[in-house]
Amino acid sequence: MIQKINRLSLVEQVAAQMEQLIEQGQWKIEEKLPPEMELMEKFGVSRNTLREAIRALVHAGLLETKQGSGTLVKSASVLGAALKRHVKKSTMLETLEVRFSLEKQAAKMAAERRTEEDLTKLEAIVLKTKVASEKEDIDQFITSDIEFHKAIVQASGNQLLIDLYEHMTDLLYSFVHDFLDMQPSFQLEQGLHLNLLDAIQKQDQASAAMYVENDMEVLKDYILKMTEE
């Protein structure tokens, strides 16, 4: 028996469709939502239903309503919005510990599950970081460094782990930039890339995890020095 759709479930359906548009990148972060009339026509709903759906996404942290600016996209996903709220309440060290816990597990899984395509991708990124280092191109080096670590997590084959790591890394971008904007860390990261790649190629899970732990210790020392200054 087909049940009549009630108003509440219609609001949820509209909110879900809007969330999908955000996650797919059709509505980008800091971008203003289309006019109300356009959205009402797009979703085939009333003004009240649309506004309730928007309020639900504002509450979830995906949207933000600003006086005089309208409604803007604030986060790319509910998961990202939730993580952002928690990260704001945590210390930098706590946040990095979570990120490295994810990365350590991902490195072990990548060593076990990596494909030839994964290895080819990692080798290409390592080459890019080497070129960026030789040119002393810090921005390209940082971009390639983040790309390398994300590629390892993607090689784990665990989609939830991939999503969590993506959001954690995006939230920590400015810190990573400051840390890598030092010549010693340039060289350290290059060495880490080569060691990690070698461990993953050999499917050596223990070594892959160990190299991530070593990287974490270096970052911990950096944070402690920052707090002491």
From TrEMBL:
This is FadR family transcriptional regulator. The keyword Ion transport does not apply. The keyword Signal does not apply. GO terms for molecular function: DNA binding; DNA-binding transcription factor activity. It comes from Allobacillus saliphilus. Residues 8-76 form the HTH gntR-type domain. Keywords: DNA-binding, Transcription, Transcription regulation. It holds the Pfam family GntR. It comes from the Bacteria.
